[in-house]
Amino acid sequence: MKQQVYNPYLPLYECIPDGEPHVFGDRVYIYGSHDKEGGETFCMLDYTTYSAPVTDLSDWRCEGTIYRADQDPAYPTDRKFMYAPDVVQGNDGRFYLYYCMSGRAGFGGYNGPISVAVSDSPAGPFRYLGFVRYPDGSPMLKYVCFDPGVINDNGTIRIYYGTWSDEQLDKDFRNKEDLIQTVMQRYHKSRNEVLDTEGSVMGPCTVTVGDDMMTVTSEPRHIIPADVTGTSFAAHPFFEASSIRKIGEKYYFIYSSWQNHELCYATSDYPDRDFVFGGTIVSNGDVGYQGRAEKDRLNMTGTTHGSIENINGQWYVFYHRLTHKSDYSRQACAEPITILPDGSIPQVEITSCGLNGKPLEGKGTYPAVIACNITNGHMPHGSNKIYTDSFPNVTNCGEDRFVGEIQDGTMLGYKYFQFSGVKEIGIQYRGTCSGKFVVSDDIGCKNIVAEIPVTPAETWSEVRTALQIADGKHPLYLFFQGSGEAAVKELYLA
Fold this sequence. Notes:
By secondary structure, the chain is mostly beta strands. The chain is 3% helix and 40% strand. It has two helices and 31 strands. It has helices at residues 177-187, 191-196, and strands at residues 20-24, 27-31, 47-53, 61-67, 86-89, 95-99, 115-119, 127-131, 149-153, 156-161, 205-209, 221-222, 238-247, 250-257, 262-268, 276-283, 307-311, 314-322, 330-336, 360-361, 364-367, 373-375, 393-397, 400-406, 411-419, 424-431, 434-440, 448-454, 457-466, 472-483, 486-493. Strands 20, 22, 25, 27, 28 and 30 form a six-stranded mixed sheet that branches. Strands 21, 23, 24, 26, 29 and 31 form a six-stranded antiparallel sheet that branches. A four-stranded antiparallel sheet has the order 1-2-3-4, with no helix packed on it. The chain is globular, with a radius of gyration of 23 Å. 48% of the residues are buried.
């Protein structure tokens, strides 16, 4: 690598969630939604793609805007914001981008169809081609067309899509008029569609299309039963974020569960049936990792979406984290994963290292926002809003990006550093704070390796102190003890 890379791995001003990684040629490309930093809702910006050589995941290059919302003929009167896309190489060698847009109801209103754009290059630019349709030209709107994931399966193009409303988890919803109306309005479905569809209008589905990449060649079908009671999916039901990979002869369906903070996977020997729950790959609050309970989440949690990819012989999971106290400014993160001989994927811990593939050097200056854990012990779960109450969070003021609203009891966690002869630690901070940051190399703060005193500072100020830490690989946890409120911009190690 030319340099170290950390989480988030893209420039700190970029918010590209829902990342679908794909290797085309000798580069890996990240296709995702595009949030606005500090935005007011999801996916406010046009699609922008980054790529890197498969041999150097620190060398990310912005490919620019690859597709604009106003290229879709439905914009803006019928649909407006472009949600999570995916890209596949067709049998003709060209590249096809599949996406859905928010519907007439605005936020949360989507009914399809799945739109398609095409380019001669994986780096774009893409041009509008059409939408997924039946042979008679009518749009394919069966079930709920949302979050498409696509695969070229030995010449067969398969699209996976769908969502699952919380209302649909109520087995008796068909007898509750208010829930029927909610489903009708949110997904632009008629009453007959909601009541007469076998099983449910909700859930993950798959459909195949022909060589034109748009015309349906099979009827859509559910790949997971509508009622997951008594199935392997009962504790982790599908919510959204369909993604598909084929490893050997086995299909891996990656999705976001109703827990809404974790990427899970299911496997099958078939592309369109018999999927069995496999496990959780990653949680953006480390919930479930080594038994961690949801109430003990190590970050604000919320929507996550991503997938897995083999890059230069190593598998990675790509996911996103929340910033700005909302679901609307999500940053791209990644971790190496292991696929065991039996095909299972153990859940991985979220780290500051990510694509670095090894601990960060225990010397130098780091942005404070690469903290992989930011918590006050009672962090919220995102709920499609911008929180106004105070809790620690990644935010910005102009070009300054920092962890703000740090109060007594806040912990900032950095995993991991490789220390060798390091004797000093410091921070750049400002705020009304008075007290100290107690530094430990264990999350229980049983071994204190430094104490960083802070006093009120109106402007960014630097303070350094002695660090007593053993050589080797260690995390760093900074616990604020004191009064007032602090913001931290940089972390120093020397």
